[in-house]
Amino acid sequence: MKPIHVLGLIPFIGMLGGLPFANKATPLVLGLPFLLFWIVLWVILTSVVMAIVNFLDPSNREEEV
Fold first, then answer.
1. Looking at the record's lineage, which domain of life comes first (predicted)?
2. Which of 44, 47, 58, 65 to pair with 11, CA 20 to 30 A apart?
3. For 1-65, where are the E strands, in sequence order?
């Protein structure tokens, strides 16, 4: 396992590890209960983290001829 792949654990830890702390109906964020906002936030952050992993992973680069 490459160190860059450890970045893939960040969304897992954020989404599932933070649920006990985010399990609240208030405050409302953007009109959403906090728990729903937390889940939507981590879905967006997961996309960002996976884009970073894809960008930094050397196996995804085209080989120069």
1. Bacteria
2. 58
3. 28-29, 32-33
